Structure to design on (216 residues):
């Protein structure tokens, strides 16, 4: 692209709006100085990779842009904690490290809620569509709500799960390294038989995303 008009025409207005919103949120909720900058950068990269994966999963084309937006913003609650409650954020990090649990589990133990619900509440106040707010609120516990086919909430859950799994176990082609709760959740949702299909889409998406970010 050599000009703004061409870039907008290529990406589309919805993509431009999503990127602008995400950039502003990451700017407004920059973590407290006590939070390592590298952690903040890894959160940004994870958000973009998760959105890229969600964009290639088999959701209804009518909700694809909204699904990508939800995936891009699914961890905004972590930004809120890191910016506004850095002591709580650091306590969560310590608990996840010491007890080898997930961040949302530590948050529920320490705070009585998780970053999913916190981020969803804020974005709901900001007028983000309910479909995306619901997906963000339940992206760690998708079995709490009913689903119609492979909807926005399931796509965000799967995209987030796969990006983390590909970071932890890049050579696991069968999903054998999945944590038991995640495997149980996929099975309950009827998605476990499609894990290999989703994983292949995620690998392709991550590769393309890394190329676009100059990380390959």
């Amino acid at each position: 692209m050599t000009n703004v008009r061409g870039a907008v025409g290529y990406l589309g207005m919805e993509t431009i709006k999503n990127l602008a919103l995400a950039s502003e949120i990451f700017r407004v909720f920059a973590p407290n100085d006590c939070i390592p900058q590298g952690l903040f950068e890894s959160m940004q990269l994870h958000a973009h990779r998760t959105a890229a994966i969600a964009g290639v999963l088999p959701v209804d084309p009518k909700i694809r842009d909204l699904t990508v937006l939800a995936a891009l913003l699914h961890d905004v609650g972590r930004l809120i904690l890191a910016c506004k409650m850095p002591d709580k954020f650091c306590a969560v990090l310590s608990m996840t490290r010491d007890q080898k649990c997930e961040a949302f589990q530590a948050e529920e133990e320490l705070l009585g809620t998780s970053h999913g619900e916190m981020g969803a509440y804020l974005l709901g106040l900001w007028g983000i569509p309910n479909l995306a707010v619901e997906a963000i609120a339940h992206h760690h516990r998708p079995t709490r709500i009913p689903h119609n086919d492979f909807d926005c909430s399931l796509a965000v859950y799967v995209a987030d799960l796969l990006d983390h799994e590909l970071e932890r176990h890049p050579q696991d082609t069968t999903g054998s390294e999945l944590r038991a709760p995640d495997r149980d959740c996929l099975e309950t949702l009827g998605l476990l038989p499609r894990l290999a299909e989703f994983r292949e889409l995620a690998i392709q998406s991550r590769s393309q995303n890394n190329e676009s970010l100059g990380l390959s």
Observations:
- The radius of gyration is 17 Å.
- The mean pLDDT is 86.
- The CA atoms of residues 121 and 133 lie 8 Å apart.
